[in-house]
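Hello again,

I reread your note about wanting to compare the complex against the isolated chains. To keep things tidy I'm splitting this into two emails, and this first one only covers the full assembly. Below are the input lines as submitted, including protein chains and any nucleic acid or small-molecule components. They are followed by the predicted structure of everything together. The single-chain runs will come separately.
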Amino acid sequence: MATDPNNIESLVNRRYEHGFITDIASDSLPPGLDEDVVRAISAKKNEPEFMLEWRLKAFRHWQTMREPEWAHVHYPKIDYQAISYFSAPISDEDRPKSLDEVDPKLLETYDKLGIPLHERARLAGVAVDAVFDSVSVATTFKEKLKDAGVIFCPFSEAVINHPELVRKYLGSVVPQRDNFFACLNSAVFSDGSFVYIPKGVRCPMELSTYFRINAENTGQFERTLIVAEEGSHVSYLEGCTAPMRDENQLHAAVVELVALKDAEIKYSTVQNWYPGDENGVGGIYNFVTKRGDCRGDNSKISWTQVETGSAITWKYPSCILRGANSVGEFYSVAVANNMQQADTGTKMIHIGPNTRSTIVSKGISAGKAQNAYRGLVKMMPQANNARNHTQCDSLLIGKQCGAHTFPYMEVRNPSAKVEHEATTSKISADQLFYCRQRGISEEDAVNMIVNGFCKEVFKELPMEFAVEAQNLLNVSLEGAVG
Amino acid sequence: MTTHEFDQAVFQKCVASIPDSALSAVRHAAAAEFGQSGFPTTRHEDWRYTNLAPAIAIQQKSLLERERGDRQLNPVDVIDIVEACWIRFDDGEFSFPLNDLPPGVTINRLADSEQASVIDVKNSLSQINAALLRDALHVTIAAGVTIDRPIGLLFAEHSESPALANHARVIISVEKDASVQILEAQLSSGGGDVYINTVTQLLLANNANVNYVRLQDCADHHVQTNRLIANIGSRAKLTHLAFDLGAQLARNDVEVALNDSDASVTLNGLYLADGAQHIDNHTRVDHAAGPSFSEELYRGILNGKSRCVFNGKAVVHEGADGTDAAQANHNLLLSDDAEVDTKPELEIYADDVKCSHGATVGQLDANALFYLRTRGLDEETAKHAITKAFAAEIVETIAPSQIHDYIQSRVDAKLDQLTAKNQ
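Full-complex prediction:
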């Protein structure tokens, strides 16, 4: 293919734009993990007794578990004793009450990231609960949400102010013992977001959180819990970006969604953590457990994700379709370049009758990256007339990358209908030639084709994210024609 | 049952009791390896849906009851229906018409040849197979020869004694430019518990052409595992059609390596299960060089409490540019209690490729049924017609021949049984 190799290389080798470390005082625990660390984390957050007990129970079980090895990823063994399990930008006691009180350096960080917090919040009407490292530092639009009865606050606040809700729903979708990383998270989770939408309320704005990892050697263990009561609706946006560093960082988050009768939750993610350099040095290990429970009839949970970052991604946002007529959706674009490894997909567990699920997964591999789709569609015997359609496409850019598909389909109901389709190909020479013939530069042609490849997923993203997603894709791949 | 319950000591003693031959070195090495690995369990990713416990139980009993009484051969219909050069394995003992081999075909016994090292022992079932071999056959099709009469491989078990485990191995070398049609029939009868574990190794030299039809129609209480390992050379072509109708538990592994440019393989399969049958088909195609071609279509019809597993894997290795791999698996569920677990996989390490796979699971198409009803067919006939059409897509890939007619009759009999139970 007629492509200038130098040009491609320069574009592919573009440095990570968000790589910098903000130098502010961190109140961190020393590296290491034992019961005392779990107690210390709980004490720092002034948690009630039940929370500490819950953490300790998880920790005790975690010690008996083994790290999973089945994913199609390779990485050096993680030393869990070398990680610091708590880091807060400033001590809890003088936590800022409003944006003005926030450390200016922190605001500067957001500026560098191109996220003018206050402006964005005002202009876009988005309430932003910004997580810097592990503790939330600024929350806006609280009043407006309060009027609607919506609770949107840092998880640690919810534990203190709404213990009954936390107690009722925490771990009810992702049990402590679910898997190795979820169990670790249950023991040491630092903070995250808590959202509660009361009965019949349509959340007046899109909720969004910006996660950003900072402070050397600190694993980040968020815990997000979203509960949508009967007939409610919420759209939640999550975006991530992290500073450049050479040591791998472990990120093991847990996200739990509960949709009751007629409720709808839309959860969108743009993940752009530091992927490591072209030799695979550094980068984030992203081992995440995300699961939604369509508990009530006619409920709906929709996952949309654009994954461009992280050295290793291990993530399967799932839906348990328990309620009759409930709907699960999964739209994903996963991009892996250089030495990145992604093993991602979804699980759709159909339990209730007439449940429906749609899976659209687009994987793009470039450089020496390995990109795997791993998904499970399970039709339980009671899932009469359940329906699934899975479309899973891979695009290969370059001779040394890999694209893999591991779909599991387990069907135990004859009236259920399951369909899976997958294709793998490179950018077709014909398409490229056609565009070139029309006077479109090679660069733009590739962009067009890649964006077209991902269009089905991008159109599911909220407006705010659609633009960011396209930019991310361009940064990650522009010009990388095979 | 787990591997721990398999008595390795008894097994090793049995291996040691087999008389020495040219196979000894390979057998003992395989026995040592099996001693380490044992039978696979559901904790192995490749075995997560299939529990070998019934096979292990029969194997264990068979090792303990080495002595058996007089054997009576039950008649096997395929011999009379399909004209072929039949190589028979009756309860593991082979016989073949030494004086009536088609020109270009030679058969060697590995126990008295120097070729024992070709025996593959890559997985644990092949290891136990190799360890317990008294002999194995090596069939060679000479270069440039087109064999008109099919080669038949008959595995028939007639045992009425309580437990019998048989391990058979056949190696087929098809030399340059040769062409052959092979019919393999796994037809066990007899009231005893039977476990049959066969391994077939196929070597296709450049430009060789093999048309391989495999029928497994064992008695409903028998257990069978089968592994086919095929290595395909440049411009060579393998067509493999597999029909699984019988057995309580059947597991087939088809592993094809496309080692050179323009090698190609077609894998088609049909599995029909009812009652408590468990049929597991695993296929793996390695595209080691390009351009190479693979296409795969497996279809299944399930009734009763049966469970079928399909796992198809296409691996495109680095440098296998120009690969074209297509794979599909379609399943029809006729009952509430049947279960299908399907997993079509792609593992791709090259970029100039065209790969696709698809899988579906569902019940009879209501529209098709309605259409036939409007044409005056009663529901039963309509259902039968659609089910038959679903299966026909695989059966019709066999070229018109005695083999086609024989398979058709076997498939029809099974389909009648399936749809009858659906009333």
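For quick reference: Chain B has eight helices and 19 strands.

B.
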